[in-house]
Write a structure and sequence with these properties.
Largest sheet: 4 strands, antiparallel
Helix content: under 10%
Strand order of the largest sheet: 3-2-1-30
Distance between the termini: 27 Å
Radius of gyration: 21 Å
Number of strands: 30
Structural class: mainly beta
Shape: globular
Number of helices: 1
Oligomer: single chain
Strand content: 35-45%
Amino acid sequence: MRKLAQIIPMASICVLALSVGPVSAGKGNDPASLPTYQYPNIYNNYLQPVATAIDYHSGMVYLFNYENDKLVIIDPTSLAGWPGKVPLQHTIVLPEGNKIYITSDTTNEHAAYIIALRTDSIDWDAGTASVMVESVMTVGTAGEPSEFPFVEPVNDVQNIPNWVIGRGPQIHGPTILPYSDYIYFTEFTSDRVRVVNTKTNQLVANVDPIIIPGYTEQTHGINFNKSGTIGLGTGYFFDNSVIDVYKPNRETGELQPVGQIMLGDEKKHAAFSHFTVWLDERYAVTATMQLDKTSLTPATTEKIIPPSVWLIDALAGTATKILDRSTNANAPGVFRSASDIAVINGKLYIAEEDSLDFTFADDGYISVYDLTDRYQPKFIKRLKPGVELPNGFAIAHTIAPTPDNRHIVVASWVSGYVVKIDTSTDTVVKVWGPNDGLVKPHGIFTAGTLR
């Protein structure tokens, strides 16, 4: 394991304040006497309360208003310039809500695409939106195979399910590089990182694709700190036990590899990480999914550390396990595989999914911890199917915080639910599901966030 001591320059956090003009108080200090202005529900260069997602089954595009709990469903095949009936994968929406990027998978007839949509207006009450295709960026070639290493089970604990390996090239992990014109996508099915210029809606010439042997394989997103000075890449496959560290160039979009941080050591380590979340400019948190050994596990490895949560020190180049596995839904620890995490208002949220053993989608949970002491999370609660979560809820896959930290939005692509959770009470305050037209929602992303 390579150490990163003093390699990464740490930048101070820049804070941007948006001024909308002076506000003067009325008589006394009564808040009710302050003037108010309700911005119309159109895209007007201000942060918009929008979360976007796609549907694996129907191919629809979903727009959620996370403030007033509205939903708009768009059939993208009705848009002029849409590339056809292609399987969709992920979304990303810019803070102003005026541009949405959607990725698709490779098929025998189609290459994978990154599609830029321009959103001119949304009428939330009518359930309609004015959207047009601005650009279709072709990635790879039709019929291209994935580049996963061969892997098979070696015990009755860790399965090798088809949802992982039975895939052609896919575009995942969209992230925004702060203070730049660049967004990044990763082909975790290969070794390519794709870089898009949001001003031109084109892949960045002389930079895209980024291929760094030993680093960019099996990466599900490169997550940047708020200053955009450090990026952390995941190892989203069996026996990938490292977090890759990059220094991004905000002028060109290039990524410079700095080092790798192992989740454990050569004898005992955790593997299969989905996302990382920054706590500040130096520290981040990641979580893992792998349950046990596979045919890829090195002979020198005595044990795969089961699903767990790790604190990353990007400056020192170290990882410290802060949460172990739990075998009880009522006890602290990671009960199912930790698919995604978020840190909001000093609390850690973990989306737990039943997806890597010899059953699939029996259930799904969202666990909550007090992270006041980042080395010792304290268990608060675990939201369960049929209790806090809808009946039949399974595979809590992706968490999307709202930029004001008031809510998190969690998507379950298997059971067809998107739930909004109040982060002050940790209760579900809105459920969208099959009765609203959702089938397999995936790729949830909230405007104003980086990933």
